[in-house]
Design goal:
About 70% of the residues lie in helices and about 0% in strands. The longest helix is centred in the middle third of the chain and has 29 residues. It is built from five helices and no strands. Helix 2 runs antiparallel to helix 3, helix 3 packs antiparallel against helix 4 and helix 4 runs antiparallel to helix 5. With about 130 residues, the protein is mainly alpha-helical.
Amino acid sequence: MGLLVRRFRTEAFAFVMAPGIVSEALDRVGTRVASAALMVVAGAGFVTLALAYGWRLLRRRTWSADDPMGQGGFALLTVAAASNVLASRILRAGHIGVAVVLLVFGAAVWVVLSYGRSARTSTVSRPNKPFTNR
């Protein structure tokens, strides 16, 4: 488990988005059984990845390449996108409370990563280098 979690990449949350989006489409056209199955896959994937990532953060206590303010920070936005895609599908299934929790979580992650990154990028000084967008 340790090796798996160490190699875990945050963009793995895209795995949750794909079945969530297809589940939403299938639900809209009336293919309820396949839609529900994909919703379960997306939900199980989200829970599994969230637990693995949480465990990784607790064990490592460093961000390294996945530093939300570092080079790999934008990959963390898949966490926000995945939770909101899942919230959308769960809302259609009538589970309003779960959907609201996922939506609030996704929005909070998005705000922190988007605006926190922008604020840090604009305030970090780089000695002997002019400020440019690279």
